[in-house]
């Protein structure tokens, strides 16, 4: 199902449903399609919002996880969303964590899945290997437990990015920023309820990363999904949505 991309000033986003805002932040190679099953399910229960993160539009000084967190803050303030449920996958989770550290007053809950911020395996030392479609296909498949989830459309999207010199440089800059920005013990400052949904077979942010997040985040709960990789909301959407729904029923007004 296609959703209208709305604009508000310089911000571009999808917004569907009514109620408390559930804001979804995609990762480094993310797109709106990453959240299609989640959006379709939760638009019947709350207001689902997906800002299109300006991975390639920020100036060089702001091309960082911190710069993206500032962008998210400006977006939330401009849209006057108030108390939000903030969900991030991969780099999007890292951005959500930085936002939570700087603007806890705007946050009701935090949901992380395959988040960076402590440790992650990237595309490898040779990334991005431009021009080699087979290499990109294999690397994209490693995102998932079931390589069939890496459809040709998805591989084509990644291939286009790494073969665009400007986009590739931006991706490298953001990836290096994420590696440098290790949050460590700062996470203990985050007091809002946190839901960690992790693929047991995630090789990019392995289960030991989830355990460390769970240890450092004082008000967190951790749920594993078996036979699942780095993007549970794409690979096993029904299981992911069921866990998230139970969490939101405890912490969001009007969700049953």
TrEMBL record:
InterPro entries to which the protein is assigned, alphabetical: AB_hydrolase_1, AB_hydrolase_fold, AB_hydrolase_sf
Pfam assignment, any one: Abhydrolase_1
Domain (AB hydrolase-1) ranges: 21-235
One GO CC annotation: membrane
GO molecular function, one term: monoacylglycerol lipase activity
GO biological process terms, semicolon-separated: acylglycerol catabolic process
PANTHER family, alphabetized: MONOACYLGLYCEROL LIPASE, MONOACYLGLYCEROL LIPASE ABHD6
Protein name: Pimeloyl-ACP methyl ester carboxylesterase
Source organism per UniProt: Thermoflavifilum aggregans
Lineage: Bacteria, Pseudomonadati, Bacteroidota, Chitinophagia, Chitinophagales
